[in-house]
Amino acid sequence: MPSRDRGGPTGTKPRGAGGPRRPARDHARNAAFDLLRAVDERDAYANLLLPRMLRERGIRGRDAALATELAYGTLRGLGTYDAIIEMCSDRTPDPDVRDALRLGAHQLLRMRVPPHAAVGTTVDLVRLRVGQGAAKFVNAVLRKIGSRELEDWIPIVAPDAERDPVGHLAVAYGHPRWIVSAFRDALGGGGELADLLDADNARPLVTLVARPGRSSVAELAESGATPGRYSPYAAYLREGDPGQIEAVAETRAAVQDEASQLVALALTRVPLEGEDELWLDMCAGPGGKAGLLDAVASYGDLEGLDGERRTDDGPEAGGGVAFPGGARVLAADVQYHRARLVWQTTRNASVVTADGTEPAWRPGVFDRVMLDAPCTGLGALRRRPEARWRRDPASIAELGALQRRLLGTALDAVRPGGVVAYVTCSPHLAETRVVVGDVVGRRDDVEELDARDYLPEVDGLGDGPHAQFWPHRHGTDAMFLSLLRKRP
Ligand SMILES: C[S@@+](CC[C@H](N)C(=O)[O-])C[C@H]1O[C@@H](n2cnc3c(N)ncnc32)[C@H](O)[C@@H]1O
Predict the structure, then answer these.
(1) CB contact at 8 A, 423 and 371
(2) pLDDT in tens, the chain (488 residues)
(3) Which residue, 2, 77, 155, 349, has most beta carbons within 10 Å?
(4) Are residues 81 and 191 in the same domain?
(5) 110 and 164 inside one domain
(6) Is residue 89 part of a domain?
(7) Domain residue limits at 98
(8) Ligand 1: which residues within 6 Å by Cβ?
(9) What is annotated as the active site (predicted)?
């Protein structure tokens, strides 16, 4: 926190003689404010823009961490803060003033910034960036907001928890109402809903993958990472820049959520009769799963399923086996620049720009197919703090049509006896079970396997046959997996 010579609690009064003190620039707060404006004005992606902004402005270390917490935290809590701001304002603030109020509210209600500093620095920012009149207004509103703790505001601004539990949780945990409803449906009830929404508001751990044959968890541990909970290739990086780790810079390792690793591994663990040489990753960009699949295809699942991880029933009864290596991956993406990213991160895979709905490959030639379908991304709200406010229910229907077409062509691409993984980074039923049910229901050449059999190291994946990861249960994104075998 920059130390300031501040006479009053708002920091507006000069201590010495002369006119009003000229506020100093607070680089972290200015960056956070600029990010909020960019998200609001031009639909910027926070996780892409902020790192660039910090780099260009030379903001590092604690200031960079502060700017990130201010920006991401404010974006996540937006729904809650807006309800409180409305209650404390006698007029609708202009968009730039509203963003400053949100920033101040986040510091007052969720960060451990002392109230006088939260108010003072926000007022300074508004005086510099908007004007004196707006600064006075912001001072008055923030003082009202700071008069109560967050838990005391919730019962005042949120719908009654008994009468409208979804509406209450939506305001209390800053999620759009339709997303809270969708999560409740996917969880099969409201029991864990608050825990899930809370987990969505927490900063996710940076998880790395040590691509087998190219790096190892032991190598990542030398850079301070600790072994993951489930995936034999995962390591958690609690601090530091992953880009500075040699193995990551050389694409032998990468940043990858643990559930993303596990759904890719599950696909490779399904035992197949006959050949197992050619795999397809149909929607591969930017290449996270393709990078792991390419390494396992080439070198094998080196850490494999050890005695503890292997299901008691063994492979004959549906349990998984460790892939020994010796396969090739074809990775496709409809967007050239995303296919390029796949090419940069993989070593042995062939990469093409191709539309999966109009296949550039012959049907029935692949032994395994990964379809990581384009989706709403509602399972990764922790990572994209503004995403929850961007999506709307209409996008579900649009994506649903594409997901069905892609799953149809994925099933056509696999040979008899081969297996398709249908994956989404969304738990929304209309993108997961409903899509699988519709497509499989119209065909007689496909059976759904129990995906949980191929993830024996993970509990709490649901009632099957698909597997659903959850941030509050597993500390991962809410990734969905269905494994479909083409009948021999
Ligand atoms: C969820 S992302 C895939 C993430 C990727 N598997 C990974 O792990 O990094 C979905 C991808 O599907 C691609 N896509 C969308 N429509 C497609 C289509 N018709 N054919 C092929 N790829 C498509 C998008 O460009 C996007 O890169």
Answers:
(1) yes
(2) 333 222 233 333 333 334 445 555 699 999 999 999 999 999 999 989 999 999 999 999 999 999 999 999 999 999 999 999 999 999 999 999 999 999 999 999 999 899 999 999 999 999 999 999 999 999 999 999 999 999 999 999 999 999 999 999 999 999 999 999 999 999 998 799 999 999 999 889 999 999 999 999 999 999 999 999 999 999 999 988 899 999 999 999 999 999 999 999 999 999 999 999 999 999 999 999 999 999 999 999 988 776 444 444 555 555 789 999 999 999 999 999 999 999 999 999 999 999 999 999 999 999 999 999 999 999 999 988 899 998 899 999 999 999 999 999 999 999 999 999 999 999 999 999 999 999 999 999 999 999 999 999 999 999 999 999 999 999 999 999 999 999 99
(3) 349
(4) no
(5) no
(6) yes
(7) 27-145
(8) 260, 282-289, 332-335, 338, 355-357, 372, 374, 425
(9) 425
User: Does residue 445 sit in the same domain as residue 384?
Assistant: yes
Domain end: 124, 145, 166, which one? 145
Asked if residue 260 lies in contact with residue 309, where contact means CB atoms within 8 angstroms, the answer is no
Active-site residue identified among 225, 265, 419, 425: 425
d(CA 68, CA 32): 7
Burial annotation 96-111 (CB, 10 A radius, 16+ → b, else e)? bbbbbbbbbbbbbbbe
Output the CA 285–ligand 1 centroid distance in Å: 5
Query: Does 338 map to a domain?
Result: yes
210 occurs within a structural domain? no
Ligand 1: distance of its center to the CA of 480 in Å? 15
Sole residue written with tokens 């969708």? 182
* Coarse DSSP helix, strand, coil percentages of the chain, rounded to the nearest 5 percent: 45, 10, 40
For ligand 1, atom 10: residue with the closest CA: 374
Of 173, 232, 179, 242, the closest CA to residue 205 belongs to 242
Q: Looking at the structure, do residues 166 and 50 belong to the same domain, yes or no?
A: no
- Output the CA 390–ligand 1 centroid distance in Å: 19
SS3 3: coil
Residue 12 located in a structural domain: no
Q: What is the pTM of this model?
A: 0.91
Q: Which atom of ligand 1 is nearest to the CA of 286?
A: 9
Q: Which residues does the annotation place in the binding site? A: 283-289, 355, 372
Does residue 170 share a domain with residue 65?
Answer: no
Active site residue 425: yes
